Amino acid sequence: MRTVIQILLFVVAVVLAYMIYQSIQRPIDFQKAQEARYDVTIEKLKDIRKAQLAFKDVYGRYTGSWDTLIDFVKYDSVRNVRKIGELTDSMIEAGISERKAIQMGLLIRDTIKESVLESIFGKGYNADQLKYVPIPDTQAEFHLGATIITTGSGIKVPVFEARAHNNVILNNLDRQLVINMNDQSRTNEKYPGLKVGSLTEAINNAGNWE
To answer: Pairing mode, if any, of strands 77-84 and 143-150?
Structure first.
């Protein structure tokens, strides 16, 4: 009988030790996975911001359409100024302005068209993946929107927003810890996920991680 009790106590001790370990390790493992997924999602949101800023430079607005934005990146072009030569101290002392130096052929300033894809992202970039949240085993898309808002001073400002909820970014991770994270964000009146830009205020296209 004593041996049986000792065995049972040993089993209970092992179970308790495992439960204590899990209670400590569980949030640590979750945080590591959460940070890794946040990192790749933030990089994708930065790419979306680059594409939207280039689109606005060309068309004077942002777009809320993934098809439009992706086609722009793949097939459209942007204007860049090619600069050869710089205004030197001796030119300045001689009273030569940059405009005059260009007229004299001392400097070259040409506006050239370049592929959006190559000039902003690089030739090997897969623009078709721009809309997808970069999380394993999912084809979830970022929510994309664009509009024009009127500031308090009456100025009309084009804005855009791209976002992904924690339920998507942290899919298949510890469900209760995701719920706790979302509740904390709502308590602090923050978006429970990652986003860049805003459809309700002019924030200079900042990301909520910045």
So the answer is: unpaired
Is the whole model's pTM more than 0.90, yes or no? no
Q: Which residues contact 86 (CB under 8 A, 6 or more apart)?
A: 107
Judge whether 113 lies within some domain.
yes
Distance CA 41, CA 23 (A): 28
Q: d(Cα 53, Cα 160) in Å, to the nearest integer?
A: 10
Q: Are 141 and 66 in contact (CB under 8 A)?
A: yes
**Structure-token pair, residue 5:** 């009790």
41, part of any domain: no
Q: Please tell me the distance from the alpha carbon of residue 95 to that of residue 70, in angstroms, as a whole number.
A: 47
- Asked if residue 22 is part of any domain, the answer here is no
Q: What would the pLDDT profile of 125-177 be if each residue is shown by its tens digit?
A: 999 999 999 988 778 999 999 999 998 888 899 999 999 999 999 999 999 99
> Which tokens go with 208?
């909520």
- Strand extents, DSSP E, 8-142: 77-84, 108-115
Tally of domains in the chain: 1
Q: How far apart are CA 126 and CA 77, in angstroms?
A: 16
Q: Residue 108's domain spans which residues?
A: 75-121
Residue 187 domain flag: no
Axis crossing angle, helix 175-187 with helix 2-59, rounded to the nearest 10: 50
